[in-house]
């Protein structure tokens, strides 16, 4: 079948304006992180391929290896995509953000206080349930999240199928299946990061719903108190959870006024979203 | 409505509610997270086919982590890696030596004579710096270019966590952290890197133990020494078709001794200056993943081989100059090197070594890689080997193991010297980079001093005992 001249032209134009076309416009900037427009944090369980994703995007060669705990401290690199320059921060892999080990502290503090524009959670598709434990905790802290559903090659090898649309709906954030070692899915991943960073996609993250009425009531009470204090705080509910759990570090940060920057503005769009979630939960 | 709350009020209310709800809050919260995760995952994941490959992973795990086969398989696997390294490195090593030493070196000498370089500059640049560097490259590059990719392939495949799993129990009984197995594995590449990787250990006590004992993981700078000495002296004890295998086993034995010492010293530390509880942790055994072969080869060559080689060259250049200087600058009738060697000789002989080896270890504090070149050069000079080498202070063209052997035997080396050198190479002070890294990581002069000096003292002790027992036994037999 042949296309008319006009049709062909239309197709070319359509391709060039389609976001997916931009995808090949990744430029790895290595350690050049000057003038970055957005900061992306890279979180996830140990050994899910965070460093591989990091290397694929930044063109750096952080050593990767098939064992947990490979990344100690945090590594940073840059890349640009479309017109935007990004700084990517590779956080140590952790199973949770609740208990206090040094690694978890680094990861948590960066997501909480570093306030990245996007948190990219790398998830091992073959161990989805365990990986979601961390994901759900991150979703409590920040709503600007993209899930990189990695190791899809392994998922196929193990004869599993993952419905990523369903997952994205349930989690309320974009989910992109990838096989980072083979550089598959990176284009879509970059597009999703860009969409969330620039606000083209607004996330409505899943919030943990407690079975216990007593806990729900307590969380609601503390959350609304915190929001009264800091109207623009996007993660008041998570801080409330931590305070009720007796987390001394968060209590100290709270006491020292580490969150006080949220008290200045009167815009409180985030609050209403959180309240709605809670009411739905109640 | 809540506009007037203060930080203190929020905290007080939270504390009050915390008491009302009680300790089940944390458990309930975890349960909520887990059940949410289970529900969401359950909805997204389906498993249309039979479970074909999980079982393969399990079968492999059952074997490599079994009580019975775990350790033997581990030793066989590492012995195979070393054997491939030793046998495979031989030819490229000789080729490099031919190019760098037999062809390029005479050419450079001629060039320097033509342009009329002063003799001392010619000596420092060519006989000192160039030869030391050329030696390091020709001896170190081939084994590293084979060993590192092999090791990285094992790592990528997912074998290292299984090693940690196997060793966990022993570490625990030594009062150390199971993750120390991982930092130890890193130490087999480079002790400085191994010490940095102890950051995965949370407890300061267990982390210190891991830092102090990391030196017992035989690092890359010491592999060539082990391999060379084992090839010359241990391999020579058996028929030639067995030589490669026996040499490899001797090197493995030294590496295993290092692991045993790690346990022993960890246990001693945790029962004396670093007493305390062993903390528990969970170690995930990751799925086996087929390594991306070429990419692994490429990155391990770039990341590790070139990196370590570059470091060796950076240290070999000034060391070459220093070796040349101490063996050419004379005080009275005697060179500085001769003074040092003569001074250290009695101590050296006491522990089965000699003065030359001890001087070499002082010169080689910045980098273990240059121990053998220094020994060779000093031996030639002290033994006054006529016809070998181009004159005093020249690290000459020991381009085959046979030539090296001639020199060492002429220098009075015996099987005992070889064994004691292999032991001392395993157990002595770490290189200066490692010491500096230990200082940066611990921030304490005291622990850094212990990290540096304890292995040295232990090395003297071990070689002393071995030398004395050896001499008594050989005295009895004659």
Please describe the topology of this protein:
The complex is a heterodimer of chains A (282) and B (478).
Chain A: H1 5-17, H2 19-22, E1 26-30, E2 38-44, H3 50-58, E3 75-81, E4 84-90, H4 102-113, E5 118-124, H5 128-141, E6 145-150, H6 152-157, E7 161-162, H7 164-171, E8 175-177, H8 186-198, H9 213-229, H10 236-244, H11 248-255, H12 269-281
Parallel strand pairs in A: 2-4, 2-5, 5-6, 6-8
Antiparallel strand pairs in A: 1-3, 3-4
Chain B: H1 7-21, H2 24-44, E1 45-46, H3 54-64, H4 70-115, H5 119-157, H6 159-173, H7 180-189, H8 191-196, H9 204-213, H10 223-234, H11 240-270, H12 293-328, E2 330-331, E3 334-335, H13 336-350, H14 355-363, H15 371-383, H16 401-410, H17 415-426, H18 432-442, H19 445-477
Antiparallel strand pairs in B: 2-3
Characterise this structure.
The complex is a heterodimer of chains A (282) and B (478). Chain A is of the alpha/beta class and 282 residues long. Chain A contains twelve helices and eight strands. In chain A, strands 1-3-4-2-5-6-8 form a seven-stranded mixed sheet, sandwiched between helices. In chain A, helix 9 crosses helix 10 and helix 9 runs antiparallel to helix 12. The C terminus of chain A is likely disordered. Chain B is mainly α and 478 residues long. Chain B contains 19 helices and three strands. Chain B is elongated, with a radius of gyration of 27 Å. The N and C termini of chain B lie far apart (100 Å). About 3% of the residues of chain B have low confidence. The interface between A and B is large, with 66 and 70 residues. Strand 7 of chain A pairs antiparallel with strand 1 of chain B.
């Amino acid at each position: 079948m042949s296309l008319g001249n006009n049709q062909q032209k239309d197709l070319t134009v359509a391709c060039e304006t389609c976001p997916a076309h931009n995808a090949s416009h990744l430029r790895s900037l290595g350690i050049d992180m000057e003038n970055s427009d957005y900061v992306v944090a890279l979180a996830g369980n140990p050994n899910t391929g965070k460093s591989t994703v990091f290397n694929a995007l930044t063109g750096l060669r952080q050593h990767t290896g098939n064992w947990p705990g490979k990344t100690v401290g945090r590594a940073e690199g840059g890349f640009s995509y479309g017109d935007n320059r990004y700084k990517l921060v590779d956080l140590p892999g952790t199973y949770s953000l609740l208990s206090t080990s040094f690694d978890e502290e680094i990861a948590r503090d960066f997501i909480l206080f570093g306030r990245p524009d996007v948190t990219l959670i790398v998830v091992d598709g073959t161990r989805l349930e365990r990986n979601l434990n961390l994901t759900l905790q991150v979703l409590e802290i920040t709503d600007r999240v993209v899930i990189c559903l990695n190791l899809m090659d392994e998922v196929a090898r193990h004869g599993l199928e993952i419905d990523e649309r369903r997952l994205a709906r349930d989690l309320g954030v974009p989910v992109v299946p990838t096989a980072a070692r083979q550089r598959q899915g990176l284009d879509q991943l970059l597009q999703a990061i860009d969409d969330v960073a620039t606000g083209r996609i607004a996330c409505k993250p899943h919030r943990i719903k407690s079975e216990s009425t007593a806990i729900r009531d307590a969380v609601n009470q503390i959350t609304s108190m915190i929001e009264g204090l800091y109207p623009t705080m996007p993660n008041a509910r998570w801080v409330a959870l931590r305070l009720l759990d007796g987390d001394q570090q968060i209590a100290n940060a709270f006491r020292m006024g580490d969150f006080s920057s949220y008290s200045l503005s009167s815009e409180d769009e985030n609050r209403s979203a959180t309240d709605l979630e809670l009411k739905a939960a109640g | 409505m809540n506009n007037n709350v203060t930080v203190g009020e929020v905290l007080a209310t939270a504390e009050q509610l915390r008491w009302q709800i009680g300790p089940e809050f944390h458990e309930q919260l975890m349960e909520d997270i887990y059940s949410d995760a289970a529900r969401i995952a359950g909805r997204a994941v389906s498993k249309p086919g039979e479970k074909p490959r999980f079982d393969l992973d399990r079968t492999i795990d059952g074997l490599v982590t079994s009580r019975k086969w775990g350790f033997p398989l581990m030793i066989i696997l590492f012995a195979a890696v070393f054997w491939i390294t030793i046998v495979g490195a031989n030819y490229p090593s000789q080729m490099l030596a031919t190019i760098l030493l037999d062809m390029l070196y005479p050419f450079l000498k001629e060039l320097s004579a033509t342009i009329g370089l002063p003799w001392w500059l010619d000596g420092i640049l060519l006989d000192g710096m160039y030869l030391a560097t050329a030696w390091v490259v020709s001896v170190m590059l081939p084994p590293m270019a084979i060993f590192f990719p092999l090791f990285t392939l094992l790592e990528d495949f997912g074998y290292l966590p299984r090693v940690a799993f196997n060793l966990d129990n022993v570490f625990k009984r030594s009062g150390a952290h199971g993750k120390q197995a991982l930092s130890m594995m890193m130490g087999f590449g480079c002790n400085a890197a191994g010490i940095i990787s102890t950051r995965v250990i949370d407890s300061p006590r267990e982390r210190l133990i891991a830092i102090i004992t990391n030196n017992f993981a035989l690092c890359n700078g010491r592999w060539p020494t082990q391999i060379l000495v084992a090839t010359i002296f241990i391999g020579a004890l058996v028929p030639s078709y067995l030589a490669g295998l026996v040499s490899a086993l001797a090197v493995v034995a030294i590496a295993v001794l290092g692991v045993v010492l790690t346990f022993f010293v960890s246990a001693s530390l945790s029962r004396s200056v670093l007493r305390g509880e062993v903390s528990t942790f969970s170690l995930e055994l990751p799925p086996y993943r087929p390594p991306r072969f070429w990419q692994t080869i490429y990155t391990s060559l770039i990341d590790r081989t070139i990196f370590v080689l570059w470091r060796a060259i950076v240290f070999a250049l000034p060391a070459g100059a220093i070796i040349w200087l101490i063996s050419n600058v004379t005080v009275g009738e005697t060179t500085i090197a001769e003074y040092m060697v003569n001074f250290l000789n009695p101590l050296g002989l006491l522990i089965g070594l000699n003065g030359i080896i001890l001087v070499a270890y002082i010169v080689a504090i910045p980098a273990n890689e240059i121990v053998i070149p220094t020994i060779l050069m000093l031996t030639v000079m002290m033994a006054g080997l006529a016809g070998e080498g181009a004159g005093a202070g020249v690290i000459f063209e020991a381009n085959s193991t046979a030539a090296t052997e001639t020199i060492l035997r002429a220098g009075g080396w015996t099987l005992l010297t070889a064994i004691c050198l292999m032991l001392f190479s395993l157990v002595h002070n770490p290189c200066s980079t490692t010491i500096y890294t230990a200082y940066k990581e611990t921030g304490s002069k005291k622990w850094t001093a212990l990290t540096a000096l304890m292995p040295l003292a232990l090395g003297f002790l071990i070689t002393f005992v071995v030398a004395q027992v050896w001499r008594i036994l050989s005295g009895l037999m004659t």
